[in-house]
Amino acid sequence: MKTSLFSSFALALLLSGCEDPNAQEIAALRQHDYVALSPMAILVPKTKVASAADTMASLRPNTQVLYCEGSAMSPRYKDGTALVVENVSFDSLEEGMTSVSHDASGLIVVRYLAKKTAEGWMTIDLSADGEPPVLLQASRYVGVVIMAFSPED
Q1: Can you tell me the distance from the alpha carbon of 113 to that of 116, in angstroms, rounded to the nearest whole number?
Q2: 141 CA to centre of own chain
Q3: Is 77 helix (H, G, I), strand (E, B) or coil?
Q4: How many helices (DSSP H) and strands (DSSP E) are in the chain?
Q5: CATH code at 21-151
Q6: What does the pLDDT look like over 43-69, one tens digit per residue?
Q7: Is the pLDDT score of 27 beyond 60?
Q8: Is 45 helix (H, G, I), strand (E, B) or coil?
Q9: What is residue 35's predicted lDDT score, i.e. its pLDDT?
Q10: Burial 15-52 (b: 16+ CB within 10 A, else e)
Q11: Confidence of residue 76 (pLDDT cuts 50, 70, 90)
């Protein structure tokens, strides 16, 4: 097996006890159980997902329905899950809420609110991929997930 000089250096740093300060902060943020604070999806027949979500959204002002595509939000929300998203004030957000926002390219992303900062909120990815935290600013904020409906398998 061929090992690059960079990976050998990184391994040496790790074994010597040197650690990236960002890695410590990321690890601390990930230790919190944000999944437990995020609304669980209610399983409904596939043909009823849209109507269930639309009914719930119609009962609350400033609410819309968005749909998950692909596995980026697994294991929490699977493909086809309808998210009921409420646009609550950015100032009233709390740690652990599941936020919906636009990323730099304009795509909708769903992430956990991990830590309030002077610039906005540090957010953690819903997937198990371990992507680094991302700063959420008010200008990209859409709302928070208040309910979710997933199609039964």
Answers
A1: 8
A2: 13
A3: coil
A4: 4, 8
A5: 2.10.109.10
A6: 999 999 999 999 999 999 999 999 998
A7: no
A8: coil
A9: 63
A10: eeeeeeeeeeebeebeeeebeeebbebeebeeeebbeb
A11: confident
